[in-house]
Amino acid sequence: MEERVIGIGGIFFKSADPRKTRDWYQEHLGFNMDQYGSTFEFRNAKDPSEPNFLQWSAFPEDTDYMSPSANEFMVNYRVKDLEKLSKVLAAEGIELLDGIQEYSYGKFAHILDPDGRKIELWEPNNEEYMNMTEGNTTK
Questions:
Q1: How far is residue 81 CA from its own chain's centroid?
Q2: Which of 33, 34, 54, 65 has its CA 20 to 30 A from that of 139?
Q3: Distance between CA atoms of residues 21 and 114, nearest Å
Q4: How many domains does the chain have?
Q5: Cα separation, 110 vs 74, whole angstroms
Q6: Could you read off the pLDDT tens digit of each residue along the chain, which spans 139 residues?
Q7: Is the peptide bond before 68 cis (omega within 30 degrees of 0)?
Q8: Neighbour-count burial for 28-67, b at 16+ CB within 10 Å, e otherwise
Q9: Is 77:8 a contact under the CB 8 Å cutoff?
Q10: Quick check: is 132 in a domain?
Q11: Residue 117 covered by a domain
Q12: Whole-model pTM?
């Protein structure tokens, strides 16, 4: 089988008070925080020269970012080739919720798992993501 998901790119969850939650994790667990949360940097096990990132983010309880899912969390999975994977998923009957969105730091698409949990697929642009999170990485 061709490579599909290659890692976890982020953990996102709803919080009654995202600022308080971020502050708690920063104070007690040493997370480096910015307005989005904390970024963890690590190296790709298959290619140690390649940096990888995991974004940890608390969202307001009333966010619609995880819609149409009613779940309080969402996992972001890293992928190598989102265009190719989206075609494979479509052939398997999996619908992209909002097509593919492209930003300077990568491409994104969303699907639902069998439990109705929203999943974010991310093909990162590591160089741009590194520039964006400069000084906010927890190693």
A1: 15
A2: 65
A3: 30
A4: 1
A5: 10
A6: 677 898 899 999 999 999 999 999 999 888 999 888 999 988 888 888 888 889 999 999 999 999 999 999 999 999 999 999 999 999 999 989 999 999 998 999 999 998 899 999 999 986 665 555 565 665 5
A7: yes
A8: eeebbbeebbbbbbeeeeeeeeebbbbbbbbbeeebeebe
A9: yes
A10: no
A11: no
A12: 0.82
Question: Structure tokens of 12?
Answer: 């996102």
State which residues form the domain around 30.
6-80
Q: What is the radius of gyration, based on Cα positions, of the chain?
A: 15
Of 32, 80, 78, nearest in space to 56 by CA: 32
- Torsion of the alpha carbons at 99, 103, 105 and 106, rounded to the nearest 10: 20
The verdict on residue 133 lying in a domain is no
Report which DSSP code applies to 95.
P
- The conformation of residue 6, written as its DSSP 8-state character, comes to E
